[in-house]
Each structure stands twice: as structure tokens, then as C-alpha cells.
Amino acid sequence: MKLPFDHITTPRLVLRPPEAGDWDAFRDFLMESPRAEFVGGGPSSDNTRRTVWRAFGHAVGHWVLKDYGPFILVDKSNSQPIGWVGPWCPEGWPEPEIAWSIWSDAHEGKGFAHEAAVAALDWAYANTNIDSFVSYVDHDNAPSAALAKRLGCVIDTDAPRFEDEDDSYDVWRHPAPDTDGNPEAYA
């Protein structure tokens, strides 16, 4: 991991790699929030503190091993972590993904995910050797599908899929960056 990492700032957010202080919000999201059911968590999952800790470590380790990963979204108004967004391609992923999760109802629908995804995509195209991203969105996750559309994504029916999962999700292809490396579709 190339440290120190300059944080990304947007009008309302700071995007940065995960830190130990993010654990409580991440844990509460994956163990208690119904919105986490789209990412393998939530109250109906069989997650324990131990399995959620492993997931948290997975995100931290992604940064260490790949020099990129999901950014924690920190609300500038109160310095609290409210979600994550960013490039993500752990072992077994068919393609690099731009993943996102907003961790509480209080922050849903206010444009935080869009604001962060635009900044994360810009950073990812400029700072990784990746020239194509997808987002995997469950068919029942209407807010994420709406965000993918707002980001200019289209469903890619020819994209590689997870071999061990059913077809209950769509693969949304992000627009490629233009010639100067900036994703003009997000402007």
C-alpha cells in the first residue's frame, strides 16, 4: 500500500481508506441494517461479529494488496463514517467493480452515493491500471440500480458473471474514461 494516501474531498464528504474507528458503523450496518441484505448481511443473515470482522479486514487488506479499495465515506458535517464506495476486485471477482453501500436510512436518497461514486471513479481511472468497471446490482435493489443509471451505466448482458451465484443480479457497465482519463459521462 502506498501511504500516505491523500484523502479525496467532495462538497459534503471525505473519501479515505478504512480505519479502525470505522469498525462500529461497519459492524452495525452488516449485522443490523436490512439494507445490508444486498451485500450478504443484515438481520436475517447468519453473520456474527467474527464474520463481520473478517469482512472489515477484507476491505482493509484489499488496500494493502492492491493499492486501491473501497473508500470510507465520511460526512464532513459530523466526521462520521456513513458508507463506502470504490474500486473493488477481490479474488474470484469476474471484473473490477465499483461497489457502494450507504450504511443508514438517514443518509439514503440524499445524493451521497452519487457524489462519492463520481469522485471514486475519477480517482480509480486516474490511479489504477483499470480501464473498465462494472457494478453488480441485485434485481431487487432499486436504489442501486437508479444510481447505476444516474452514473451512465448500462446493463451488460455479455459481461462475465460469478460462477457460483444465481442470476438474481445485473452487471452494470460504467462508461469508459475519455482520452484524458476523466469519466466525462459523470460530469
How does this model look, in words?
The protein is globular, with a radius of gyration of 16 Å. It is 28% helix and 20% strand. A five-stranded antiparallel β-sheet has the order 1-2-3-4-5, with helices on one face. By secondary structure, it is α+β, with helices and mostly antiparallel strands. Strand 3 (71-75) and strand 4 (80-88) form a beta hairpin. The protein has four helices and eight strands.
Task: Give a brief rundown of this model.
The protein has 187 residues and is of the alpha+beta class. 28% of the residues lie in helices and 20% in strands.
Per-chain topology:
Layout: E1 8-9, E2 13-16, H1 23-32, H2 49-66, E3 71-75, E4 80-88, E5 97-102, H3 112-127, E6 134-138, H4 142-150, E7 154-155, E8 169-173
Helix pairs in contact: 1-2
Helix content: 25-40%
Query: Which whole number gives the mean pLDDT?
Result: 87
Shape: globular
Calculate Rg over CA atoms: 16 Å
What's the SSE pattern?
A: EEHHEEEHEHEE
- What is the structural class? alpha+beta
